[in-house]
Each structure stands twice: as structure tokens, then as C-alpha cells.
Design goal:
single chain, 149 residues, alpha+beta
Length: 149
């Protein structure tokens, strides 16, 4: 697995609220820039392994579609998804840590599961930089949404 970015931010909201909102991927386009649309693709519950979503996103100015599936879920502390985007095979991990009754430390990490990519591949540097900027904006957006409720 090749790490791409990892960002963290404290959110003044209880852990259960942060976990429920962030892990409902139908909310993802509300807080992550570049996600055009994301919809449930099966009838499983939000926290069930195998829950599937169809995502449309912008990559280098081009629309791409991928299927995302819940790979691991441990409420309210860990949520991991894996996508089928060819050549990249993304993994997103969200972790949640209760700091106080109304304060949660939120961690957001992305990695590539693609085994054919070398860790020093030329396209990784701009990809990591872009993803880091978007992830930093995303956690700030998430914080704003959750703290305004």
C-alpha cells in the first residue's frame, strides 16, 4: 500500500455524530471537493461490510466513476473503504478519537492499493500534493458543517 495523504483535525462535536455523518458517504460530496456525486448502490446499512456506493469525481479535470465498498467498520472509531478505480485502487480510512464529550479528533487518510505503482512513480508527487490540499480543505469543511449543527 502506498500512503498518499493523512490529515487530522479536532471537531467540536460528539464522536457518534461525527462518525455517523462522515461515514455516510452520501454526505461525502458535501464536504470533499472534487466529488460530483455519490449514491448508494445496494441496500446494505451504512456500517455494513460490503455496503457499496457509486462515486463520480473529478481527476485532473476529467470525470471518473468508481465503485466504493465498505471494507472495515468499527463504530465509532474506524471506517475504511476501498475503490475500484483502475491504476489507482484507492483506500480511504477515517478514524475517530473521543477527546472530550463534545470534541472528536478526526483523521482522514488515503492510500493506493495498486501493486504496479512504484513508490517513486512520477505521477505520485503531484497526486499526493493535490490530494493533500483537497483533504485539508475537506476536514475544514466537515468541521464547519458539524460545528454549525
Amino acid at each position: 500500500m502506498i500512503p498518499l495523504t493523512n490529515v487530522s483535525l479536532s471537531i467540536e462535536q460528539d464522536i457518534d455524530t461525527v462518525f455517523a455523518y462522515a461515514t455516510n458517504l452520501e454526505n461525502y460530496a458535501n464536504w470533499f471537493e472534487g466529488v460530483i456525486d455519490i449514491k448508494s448502490a445496494n441496500n446494505l446499512g451504512q456500517f455494513e461490510l460490503g455496503k457499496t456506493y457509486q462515486e463520480t469525481l473529478l481527476i485532473n479535470g476529467q470525470q471518473a466513476m468508481l465503485t466504493i465498498q465498505v471494507h472495515e467498520c468499527s463504530q465509532p472509531n474506524l471506517f475504511v473503504t476501498q475503490g475500484d478505480l483502475a491504476g489507482f485502487l484507492p483506500q480511504m480510512a477515517m478514524s475517530f478519537e473521543r477527546l472530550a464529550e463534545q470534541e472528536t479528533l478526526f483523521h482522514l487518510a488515503y492510500a493506493s492499493r495498486e501493486t504496479t505503482i512504484a513508490k517513486d512513480d512520477a505521477f505520485l508527487t503531484p497526486l499526493k500534493a493535490d490530494l493533500t490540499v483537497r483533504a485539508q480543505k475537506a476536514v475544514l469543511n466537515l468541521k464547519s458543517i458539524l460545528e454549525s449543527n
